[in-house]
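Each record in this resource describes a single protein on a pair of labelled lines. An example record follows, reproduced without changes.
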Amino acid sequence: PGSAPQVSRPLTERGSFDEVWGLDPGMNDMFAASKVRGAVGVETISCSSAEFYCKSKYTFAKKQERRWKSKAPAIGEIERTMPTYKTADMRTLEAHIVHVKRHQDALMNFYGARRFQNLRFLKYTRSQATMVELCKKV
């Protein structure tokens, strides 16, 4: 009782609809994909990080956030005086937590506003659509 074992066919026996692509996530590019096209050569598809961020509205969102923060100097001051959380020293981490707790209401009102929610949703939906577009290329 059970299903028959699946046998993997060699690449030479695969149907004409199958294509083998090599995919490489890169440091500068989101990815680079290539495949050999017989005697024709190599077909390559890539997407730079800048292109991905532009299409998924990350660059627009960052500029918009900077504009909003420039109009709220109190938030800028809170963030400038905030101790770092990237530390192994417990006193520094505690100082960060105390600072955040002290200014929690102002930070939540600013970053929890509807405009920030809409901007995060825009970035999410556009990045998903961009990923689908890139997958269709391959």
Observations:
- The mean pLDDT is 84.
- The chain is about 55% helix and 15% strand.
- The two ends are 39 Å apart (CA to CA).
- Residues 114-137 form the longest helix (24 residues).
